[in-house]
Each structure stands twice: as structure tokens, then as C-alpha cells.
Amino acid sequence: MRQHIGGVNPELLPLSKDALYLAQRFLDANLLSSRRLDDVRHVACAIAHQRDVLVNWNYRYIANVRKAEAFRAVAALEGFRSSLEIHTSLEIVEWT
After folding, report:
1. What's the rounded Cα separation, in Å, for the pair 88 and 29?
2. What ranges do the domains of the chain cover?
3. Which H or E run contains 71?
4. Of 55, 59, 58, 61, residue with least CA distance to 87
5. What is the mean pLDDT of residues 29-57?
6. For residues 64 and 87, what is the distance between their CA atoms, to the nearest angstrom?
7. What sign results for the dihedral spanned by CA atoms 71, 59, 92, 5?
């Protein structure tokens, strides 16, 4: 897997007002509990900054199809257009 890491150009996105707002909407919709605040902020940041792919190791709470659909649905209800796909690092490596 190390040989693939050099080709990845990750971005550090700021936690904008839109991202904080959207994270709170995710919590209000009970997509995750408040104990998972960092996780909802991670997803909200990607959506607020209009990213297409989010890479995350968290299979249980984030990186699964049903959760990704729910995050996009709540985002759409709040006026955010998103085509965000959530994948694990292993899935991304398999693309190369």
C-alpha cells in the first residue's frame, strides 16, 4: 500500500460555518450520536467544500453505502448539492 500513498494528494479543509451547520443537522437527524462529533464534522466538511470522495477508515459509522446516502439526503434537505462518495483507503488502493 505504501507505493500508492505517494500518488495521493490529501487536502486539509477548514471547518467552515457551512460545515459546522451541516454537522449539527447530521446530529439533529440522528445520523450519528454526539459522541461521533469528529465523524460528522469530517463528512460535513467534505460536503460543504464540494468534494467528490471522502476517504475514511470508519466502516461502522461512515464508510458504508447506507450512511453515505443518509448524509447526502440530509445535506440535500439543507440545500447542499453533493455527489460525495465515501470509501476506505483499501478501496481507493484497489482503483490503481
Report:
1. 24
2. 14-95
3. helix 65-77
4. 55
5. 92
6. 8
7. positive
Give which of 23, 88, 67 is closest to 49, Cα–Cα.
23
pTM of the complete model: 0.83
Mean pLDDT of 46-75: 87
Mean pLDDT of the chain: 86
User: In angstroms, what is the C-alpha Rg of the chain?
Assistant: 13
Quick one: angle between helices 37-48 and 65-77, nearest 10?
A: 60
Determine the pLDDT at residue 67: 87
Question: Is the model's pLDDT at 90 over the cut of 80?
Answer: no
The amino acid at 53: V
Instruction: Identify which of 75, 84, 78 has the alpha carbon closest to the alpha carbon of residue 53.
Output: 84
Q: How many CA atoms lie within 13 A of 68 on its CB side?
A: 18
Strand partners, 19: none
Whether the per-residue pLDDT at 4 is higher than 70: the answer is: no
